[in-house]
């Protein structure tokens, strides 16, 4: 029996090695996981060269993702001098052509100094990924098992490369995505930074609250205004820092904002700072509409107006003080006048009535004397009634009326009212009224009060004059500077030139029998008519009191012939 | 017109009234006479000063505000002349400051018009018979 253990065991060994090699090749994709195409190719070439004892191995990859075509070459056991890799590649291309798909699967070719067997294995069904070149000088290359291993290796490489390609594509997309996200993030950060910067560096307070008023954010100006840090504020609501008296109106306004009744509102109110002190602020509040991520919130632009308020208040106080002083001053003068006018006749009434009672109480009663004093009492009572009527006429007018006044007419009316009394006092009145007197603008009744006052002053000044005529002149005339002047000149006792200034204060003014108003009030009336009132001593006995007031601006109308002035006459110079 | 000499002969004390208000000059003397006093009225301070009644006057009822010489002016003039006549001011202006000042300057009293007969009598009493 012929025993041939040797060949059988060699065959078994060969098969065992083949199986081991297959296992190694099948394990390659696991090793390649996560590797790049060139790493895969390198591993593949190393494995094949070692496993099949190749003299030359090369992989040409087409269109690797994101890279130029590559060709990787391993040269192992070629005898003789080694040509450089790129020459081998060129030789391959030269003998095989540029298009690897057209390469024949197996050929013998002269490479370097030797003749080699070359196996070409396409990567991918159509060789779309590239081609593997495996070459050996052995003539039996490739043996059957070697062809099998090469095919398996090519398949495995194809799988690994496709995975790598896919992964590379995914990575590229992921990278692009990451890049876009990073870019967008940077843009957003810049925008946020910009807005934050506006918020932080704003010259006025900026504060954000939720719809309940709880602080969300506050800029440094606002923090400084209130003395709270942003963190402290976030535990509070604006209702906590607003003074009680503004809460209701503030709540109402916010309510209207939330109901859409208004776009925004402005409020001036007081805040209580952290240290308890109060400040005035003006807030512009608006509702900021929400987004998908951010709910609606309130934004207030807050301005500290404490200093401005303080100045305004000081100004108002000064104004009202001034108004009060001037009111009290004129009221004081008026009150003195009224008291004087009322108390004079009242004094006579009471004295006469007292005397009357005493006369009736004597034994026997002094009937005639009592009758006389009772008569005086009635007379003084009537006089007082007249005074009160006049006072009422004077003060019932709250607002002085403004009309065109013919001073001559006004004078004639006053003369008519006082002629009886003047005659009783033996005063001779001589009117000297200018014919072409321009109209003046003002309150007729008030001006008549002044004229009456001057007439009675003049009459009183002459009440003791016995050695000369008690002559009183009332004169109207044009005055320089488009003014009209009225003068009342008496021949009375005159006044002390040194006391000329004091004539117009209350102490001196309140003289005369039941006259309407004093000189101080007269002067204030004249001044209200943009005029002035003054007194001069005559060359002879007596004094003259004059006032001068501007004529009606377009008052070309002549005073004579115009008795009743209506409104149209004021506007038209040709009305006369 | 009666003279001051005649009045003093009857041995009535003379009270003079100086006031520019006619109704006062008319009514006050009658009341003073009912008090048992002699009375004379003058419409101005000047008129009083030139009259022959200054020496006889035991009490002066003097208006404060008058044209020409005022009541206080007359008071100063009388002091200057060493005429120590007790003065009761009468005024229609109810000014407490003025009243205070007049009394400080030596007036016996300052009455605000209108005043009652008893008030006047009390003032004249304290002027004629100082305590």
Can you tell me about this structure?
The complex is a heterodimer of chains A (576) and B (131). In chain A, helix 2 (37-52) runs antiparallel to helix 4 and helix 12 (444-461) runs antiparallel to helix 14 (519-528). Chain A is an alpha+beta fold and 576 residues long. Helices cover 49% and strands 20% of the residues of chain A. Chain A is rod-shaped, with a radius of gyration of 62 Å. A five-stranded antiparallel β-sheet of chain A has the order 2-1-5-4-3, sandwiched between helices. Chain A has a five-stranded antiparallel β-sheet with strand order 7-6-10-9-8, sandwiched between helices. With 131 residues, chain B is an alpha/beta fold. Chain B is built from six helices and five strands, in the order H-E-H-E-H-E-H-E-H-E-H. Chain B has a five-stranded parallel β-sheet, with helices on both faces. Chain B starts with a helix and ends with a helix. The interface between A and B is large, with 40 and 32 residues.
Key phrases:
heterodimer; A: 576 residues; alpha+beta; five-stranded antiparallel beta sheet; 15 helices; 17 strands; 49% helix; disordered C terminus; B: 131 residues; alpha/beta; five-stranded parallel beta sheet; 5 strands; 43% helix; 20% strand
Main sheet of chain A, how many strands, which sense, barrel? 5 strands, antiparallel
Report strand order across the widest sheet of chain A.
Answer: 2-1-5-4-3
Question: Rough shape of chain B?
Answer: globular
The average pLDDT score of chain A comes to: 79
Number of helices of chain B: 6
**Biggest β-sheet of chain B, characterized?**
5 strands, parallel
Largest interface: A-B, 40 and 32 residues
Which percent range describes the beta-strand content of chain A?
A: 15-25%
Uncertain runs of chain A with pLDDT below 50, 5 residues or more? 506-517, 555-576
The percentage helix of chain B is 40-55%
Structural class of chain B: alpha/beta
Q: Give me the oligomer status.
A: heterodimer
Q: Please mark out the parts of chain B with pLDDT under 50 across 5 or more consecutive residues, or reply none.
A: none
């Amino acid at each position: 029996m012929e025993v041939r253990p040797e060949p059988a065991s060699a065959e078994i060994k060969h098969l065992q090695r083949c199986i081991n090699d297959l296992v190694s090749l099948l394990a390659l994709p696991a090793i390649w996981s996560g590797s790049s195409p060139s790493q895969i190719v390198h591993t593949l070439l190393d494995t094949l060269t070692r496993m099949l004892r190749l003299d030359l191995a090369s992989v040409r990859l087409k269109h690797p993702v994101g890279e130029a075509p590559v060709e990787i070459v391993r040269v192992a056991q070629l005898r003789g001098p080694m040509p450089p890799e790129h020459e081998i590649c060129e030789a391959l291309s030269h003998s095989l052509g540029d298009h690897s798909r057209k390469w024949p699967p197996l050929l013998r070719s002269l490479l370097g100094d030797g003749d080699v067997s070359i196996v070409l294995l396409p990567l991918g069904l159509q060789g779309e990924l590239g081609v593997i070149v495996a070459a050996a000088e052995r003539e039996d290359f490739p043996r059957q098992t070697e062809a099998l291993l090469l095919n398996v290796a090519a398949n495995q490489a194809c799988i690994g490369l496709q995975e790598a390609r896919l992964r590379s594509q995914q990575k590229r997309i992921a990278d692009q995505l990451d890049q876009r996200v990073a870019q967008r993030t940077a843009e957003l950060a810049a925008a946020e930074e910009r807005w934050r910067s506006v918020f932080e560096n704003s010259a006025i307070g900026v504060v954000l609250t939720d719809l309940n008023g709880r602080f969300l954010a506050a800029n440094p100006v606002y923090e400084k205004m209130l003395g709270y840090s942003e963190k402290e504020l976030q535990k509070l609501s604006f209702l906590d820092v607003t003074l009680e008296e503004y809460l209701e109106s503030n709540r109402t306004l916010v309510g209207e904002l939330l109901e859409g009744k208004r776009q925004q509102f402005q409020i001036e109110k007081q805040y209580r700072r952290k240290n308890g002190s109060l400040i005035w602020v003006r807030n512009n509040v608006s509702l900021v509409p929400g987004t998908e991520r951010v709910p609606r919130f309130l934004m207030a632009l807050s301005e500290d107006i404490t200093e401005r308020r303080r100045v305004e208040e000081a100004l108002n106080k000064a104004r009202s003080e001034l108004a009060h002083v001037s009111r009290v001053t004129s009221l004081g003068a008026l009150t003195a006048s009224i008291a004087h006018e009322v108390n004079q006749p009242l004094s006579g009434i009471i004295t006469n009535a007292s005397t009357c009672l005493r006369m009736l109480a004597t034994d026997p009663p002094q009937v005639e004397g009592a009758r006389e004093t009772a008569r005086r009492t009635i007379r003084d009572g009537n006089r007082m009634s007249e005074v009160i009527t006049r006072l009422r006429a004077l003060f019932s007018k709250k607002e002085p009326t403004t009309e065109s006044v013919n001073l001559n007419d006004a004078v004639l009316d006053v003369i008519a009212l006082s002629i009886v009394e003047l005659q009783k006092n033996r005063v001779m009145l001589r009117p000297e009224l200018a014919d072409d007197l321009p109209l003046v603008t003002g309150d007729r009744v008030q001006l008549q009060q002044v004229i009456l006052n001057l007439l009675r002053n003049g009459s009183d000044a002459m009440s003791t004059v016995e050695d000369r005529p008690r002559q009183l002149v009332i004169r109207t005339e044009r005055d320089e500077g488009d003014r009209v002047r009225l003068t009342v000149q008496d021949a009375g006792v005159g006044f002390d030139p040194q006391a000329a200034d004091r004539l117009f204060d209350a102490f001196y003014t309140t003289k005369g029998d039941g006259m309407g108003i004093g000189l101080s009030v007269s002067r204030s009336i004249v001044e209200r008519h943009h005029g002035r009132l003054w007194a001069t001593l005559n060359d002879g006995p007596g004094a003259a009191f004059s006032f001068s007031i501007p004529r009606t601006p377009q008052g070309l109308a002549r005073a004579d012939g115009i008795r009743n002035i209506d409104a149209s006459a004021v506007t038209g110079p040709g009305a006369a | 017109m009666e003279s001051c000499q005649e009045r003093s002969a009857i041995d009535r004390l003379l009270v003079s009234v100086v006031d520019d208000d006619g109704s006062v000059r008319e009514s006050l003397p009658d009341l003073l006479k009912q008090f048992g006093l002699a009375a004379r009225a003058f419409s101005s301070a000047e008129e009083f000063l030139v009259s022959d009644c200054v020496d006889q006057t035991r009490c002066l009822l003097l208006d404060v505000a008058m044209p020409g010489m005022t009541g206080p002016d007359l008071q100063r003039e009388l002091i200057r002349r060493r005429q120590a006549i007790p003065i009761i001011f009468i005024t229609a202006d109810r000014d407490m400051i003025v009243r205070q000042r007049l009394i400080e300057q030596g007036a016996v009293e300052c009455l605000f018009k209108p005043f009652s007969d008893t008030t006047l009598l009390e003032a004249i009493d304290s002027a004629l018979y100082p305590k």
